[in-house]
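Technical annex, item 7. During the second reporting period the consortium partners agreed on a shared format for inverse folding records so that results from different sites could be compared directly. Each record opens with the tokenized structure and is followed by the designed sequence. A conforming record, contributed by the partner at site C, is shown below for reference.
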């Protein structure tokens, strides 16, 4: 059997990049890591690290050469002004997809719940719901998912768009009882994204097995992914941990929806 192709991981020096590096390296994968910031941990045996700005298209194409999967976690990861988001999250994403087209590689895109953040918390969403971004950051994630659709329809490039909820060591407020994704569930999801026979252009709700989840149907069966963890045991300590802000509590995107919110009357249902 031929050697599996290396995995390119952008955003490797970030919170989730470091978790994924550790998890996939332990499973023996050959990793090509990259970030604009230095890699802060000891480099695993089968890994290399290259410092790179996602705005540098030539560098992205060069680094992706020979890779079978691109786990795209790099870029602006929080609510920022439009001009900050533009380079890494829009232009950089285009370079990632151009690289994937050239290499016939699969893209796993770290999308976000903030691409759909203005859906009400009372709604149960499936993967084909409308985008309702709650920030320029969330809008860049919707753009990223649509880029995946374009490259699938036009070039047959596969992608898995993971709408990550809240990926932290543990949930810290009431909203995360719905949105929490544990680190082990993130790693097992990445493994399935790499190994799955065929994905097409798929959407996954990136959350653990939470009873209070806002989210329903997605492509997990096709990928063979089952989250093992759950925020439910934290309910006792966190259910009362609310923000006190009616906008934040109304919408799935939480605090991002209320930032610079200037409606004087609530939007109709
Ligand atoms: N952590 C979560 O709960 C969560 C939720 C939803 C989505 N996500 C997404 O997952 C990904 C990783 O999130 P994270 O929490 O690890 O964020 P993070 O900020 O810790 O990591 C992002 C990394 O991208 C790098 N980066 C920024 N600009 C860059 C550029 N121009 N060129 C190259 N690298 C650049 C940063 O240096 C950083 O290391 C992000 O795309 C984020 O939007 C995370």
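Designed sequence (site C submission):
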């Amino acid at each position: 059997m031929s050697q599996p192709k290396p995995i390119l991981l952008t955003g490797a020096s970030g919170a989730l990049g470091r978790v994924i590096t550790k998890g996939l390296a332990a499973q023996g994968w050959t990793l090509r890591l990259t970030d604009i910031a230095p890699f802060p941990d000891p480099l695993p045996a089968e890994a290399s690290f290259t410092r790179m700005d996602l705005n540098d298209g030539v560098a992205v194409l060069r680094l992706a050469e020979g890779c079978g999967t691109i786990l795209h976690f790099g870029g602006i990861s929080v609510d920022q002004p439009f001009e900050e988001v533009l380079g890494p999250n829009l232009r950089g994403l285009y370079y990632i997809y151009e690289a994937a087209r050239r290499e016939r590689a699969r893209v796993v895109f770290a999308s976000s719940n903030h691409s759909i953040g203005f859906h009400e918390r009372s709604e149960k969403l499936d993967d084909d719901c409308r985008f309702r971004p709650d920030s320029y950051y969330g809008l860049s994630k919707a753009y990223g998912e649509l880029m995946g659709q374009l490259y699938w329809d036009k070039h047959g490039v596969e992608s898995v768009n993971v709408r990550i909820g809240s990926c932290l060591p543990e949930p810290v407020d009431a909203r995360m009882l719905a949105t929490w994704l544990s680190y082990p569930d993130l790693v097992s999801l990445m493994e399935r994204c790499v190994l799955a026979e065929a994905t097409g252009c798929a959407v996954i709700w990136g959350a653990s097995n939470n009873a209070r989840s806002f989210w329903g149907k997605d492509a997990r069966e096709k990928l063979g992914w089952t989250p093992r963890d759950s925020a439910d045991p934290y309910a006792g300590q966190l259910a009362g941990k609310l923000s006190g802000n009616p906008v934040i509590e109304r919408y799935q995107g939480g605090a991002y929806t209320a930032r610079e919110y200037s409606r004087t009357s609530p939007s109709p249902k």
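The domain at 7-258 is CATH 3.40.50.720 (Rossmann fold). Residues 82-103 form the longest helix (22 residues). All partners now use this format for quarterly exchanges.
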